Amino acid sequence: MSAALTVARREFAAYFATPVAIVFIVIFLVLSGALTFTLGGFFARGQADLIPFFSFVPWLFLFLVPALTMRLWAEERRLGTIELLLTLPITAWQAVIGKFLAAWAFCAVALALTFPLVVTVNLLGEPDNGVILTGYLGCLLVAGAYLAIGAAISALTRNQVIAFVLAVAGCFLFAAAGSPVVTEFLSANLPVLAELARAVSVTERFAGFTRGVIDARDFIFFASFMAFWLFVNAVILEHKKAD
Amino acid sequence: MTALIEIERLTKRFGAFTAVDDVSFTVARGEVVGFLGPNGAGKSTTMRMLAGFMLPTSGTARICGEDVVERPIAAKRNLGFLPEGAPTYPEMSVVDFLEFCARIRGFAGAERVERVAHAMSLTQLEGVRLQPIETLSKGFKRRVGLAQALLHSPPVLVLDEPTDGLDPNQKHEVRELIRAMAPQKAIIISTHILEEVATVCTRAIVIARGRVLADATPAELVADGRSMEEVFRTLTLGAAA
């Protein structure tokens, strides 16, 4: 575990060594704030909750999280440092977990910096802070799910742009699977797949958290979703160490 | 004397292309093996398999008796590896990078500080310890890679072109360093520079098209009065014909 944490530490610091961290956080805060107050109708709704904010976060993450994961392995391949990292006495697993934890911690920081929204609703009304907390937990789990997909895809290529585009597409698949457009189309034509699409939909599972419900099944879904993609990541790495 | 590096019938194929073809040799403590060959001969591929970065198609290698395929972590603990091109994380400072490698290798506290300081003094990096690696010259970058390989005082060193990109003075320093460490270690260096073999190595292995063509001391190779360069050309061009 300590080797994984060492990798995580280095990776986390690497985000802040380049403008990536600042750009990501600023864009995330500006967009999440702007969307919450304009499209989300934060004031017009007259309700003291963060539902407008939580409804946009999975869609923002859809584009922003792949920007965090694209470099994880693609950059190592381009620079050749993957040869250094994987010839140090660590397993592929430790490297995979370390990188994932670093990106996840970074998402947690970005989410934590939206605290002014929480302060605002608490000043304006009396929100259920428990619901807000589960909403944030849900956001973190969605971020983790997208990160796991993105990291696995990044291990496939040495090109960061390809890693980004494929990761957005991959995340979109699991985000859109639960949307009414998809499920209605599928239940009309392929009822079997409609159930499946809802079952693997990240946004569908996230919805419960924004209502303040922590369902063990949703929790297990996110945990196994991340574990699966991290496993895929480790397998890709083992089989495709050198190009 | 037991061999610290044992390579046994190592073979690597990429599709139909055989990069390393049935290579076997051993290196004992105190030996410095110069790995010679034209570009694409299979030097780096052999070294990568030895370092556990590539899986061999068949055959295996052992470092200090630990199989690199079966027990990769144990093997890597005994190995200092300088990959081709000496890759390092460009945004990190020299000392941060070496600290990172030391942490991964499980050194903590005062020992880690001491290890990093020692590796930097061996490779004369103290002057640039706080500089980001990307701002350093090619020679310094190469020495950062070398420092990383020496950090844990491994019994086995595998250095892929350790003097590439260094100026003559720096080359001299690195050769002196290798010579000084040689008695306690088993060392393999790959190189294009033939004079390097004569000055540093106790043994030369010439490889071309994935096969070992010669395995002898530098003196034996030039025993018939020809120059090292002539010997190299005859061997490697002969294999190509």
Name the biggest interface.
A-B, 23 and 30 residues
- The radius of gyration computed from the alpha-carbon positions of chain A, rounded to a whole number of angstroms, is 19 Å
Oligomeric state of shown chains: heterodimer
Instruction: Sketch the major β-sheet of chain B.
Output: 6 strands, mixed
List the domain count of chain B as a whole number.
2
What's the architecture of the largest domain in chain B, going by CATH? 3-Layer(aba) Sandwich
Structure report:
The complex is a heterodimer of chains A (243) and B (241). With 243 residues, chain A is mostly helical. Chain A has one domain. Helices cover 80% and strands 0% of the residues of chain A. Chain A is built from 12 helices and no strands. The mean pLDDT of chain A is 90. Chain B has 2 domains: 158 residues, P-loop containing nucleotide triphosphate hydrolases (Rossmann fold, 3-Layer(aba) Sandwich); 66 residues. The radius of gyration of chain B is 18 Å and the shape is globular. In chain B, strand 7, helix 6 and strand 8 form a beta-alpha-beta unit. The model of chain B has no long low-confidence stretch (mean pLDDT 90). With 241 residues, chain B is an alpha/beta fold. The longest helix of chain B is centred in the middle third of the chain and has 14 residues. Chain B starts with a strand and ends with a helix. In chain B, helix 3 crosses helix 4 and helix 4 crosses helix 5. Classes of the chains: A mainly alpha (243), B alpha/beta (241). At the A-B interface, helix 1 and helix 4 of A face helix 2 and helix 3 of B.
Name the descriptors.
heterodimer; A: about 240 residues; mainly alpha; 12 helices; globular; B: about 240 residues; alpha/beta; Rossmann fold; 6-stranded mixed beta sheet; 4-stranded antiparallel beta sheet; 9 helices; about 35% helix
